[in-house]
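Example 4.3 (complexes with small molecules)
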Amino acid sequence: MDIKITIVGETEVGKTSLVQYFVNETPSLQNSTTPCASFLKKVAMVNDKVINFQMWDTAGQERFRSIAPMYYRGSDCVLLVYDVGQQASYEQLKEFWVKEVQSKCPYHVIFALVANKQDITEQKVTNQEGRAFAQANQLEFYETSGKSGAGVLQMFQELAQKVIDQKQNTQMAKEDTSKEVLVRTQVTQVKQKKDSCCM
Ligand SMILES: Nc1nc2c(ncn2[C@@H]2O[C@H](COP(=O)(O)OP(=O)(O)OP(=O)(O)O)[C@@H](O)[C@H]2O)c(=O)[nH]1
Ligand SMILES: [Mg+2]
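Answer. The structure with magnesium ion bound is encoded below.
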């Protein structure tokens, strides 16, 4: 199964380092900003299912904002990342990114608020604050560090499972709808036969 994940958030919050950690399973802290976006792939097992992770790591610099929808529109899951040491990166998610992605993605997309750089000692945004905001806005919430790797692999695994569940539910709903249509068609056909019968 393919799972498409897009990572958004302000510049320097650690998006690239986070996704690189997931792909390489070892710290790969970045020292250059991402221009436009980069595409990464990983095949991994999620609860005995083979999953092809397809990930767009977008550019956080403001000049690239207008192209971000090209990446998150077809996604199954969007990660909204902030740096717990940078209040402004959290405010930007609250004021801009959350509304932006929620208004432009279909209802079944899974959104996750990611409180990154948990390794730093001077946390400006508390995890309680992030979690409360996430709960109030139908977002999953994760605490991660691309530096130590804390929470990273578990987050991608959990999100993949949520996407799998969501896809199965959507598939079941589709099957139910087509069964209902089939039954309704049969009922109509029977009724039409009866109507056309002279008895
Ligand atoms: N302490 C700490 N530093 C981190 C962590 N993740 C990334 N960094 C550092 O933060 C800076 C920005 O990291 P990137 O991964 O390039 O950030 P980005 O969000 O991809 O930035 P853009 O590509 O400009 O949008 C780099 O100096 C990283 O070394 C982390 O978890 N902890
Ligand atoms: Mg980057």
